[in-house]
Amino acid sequence: MKKVAEIGYEGVEFAGYGGLSQGLREVLEDTGLKSVGSHVSLEMLRDSLDEVIEMNKTIGTRYVVCPYLGDDCRNTGQMDKVAGILTRSGEELAKHGIGFGYHNYSFEFEIKVGDESVAISYKWLQDNYL
């Protein structure tokens, strides 16, 4: 990350951190880099949200992003479950001053909820947390 700072970047986004949040914080402080965002899987959000929050608080992350839905989540039967995980994650992250986002893909235009695609009808999410 020292090289990243040397070439002029001011911030970085993580996709995994290897369980070394305090060490990562020290590297960020030493290099002057800021943790702008962190990609976190739906499974981590579901199973380890407290750990996700603590890690991102430790390294000063401004945003957590759920980057992708696996094949097992890409159907209308799973949308309520996915929405619950995303909404709960957004609510909990917001309590700690961390924003939350979801990176959508083209497959979401193919999943239908009623007559609308999921990508168009995000009615199942709480807007103020995503």
TrEMBL record:
SUPFAM superfamilies on file: Xylose isomerase-like
Protein name as it appears in the record: Sugar phosphate isomerase/epimerase
Organism field: Paenibacillus larvae subsp. pulvifaciens
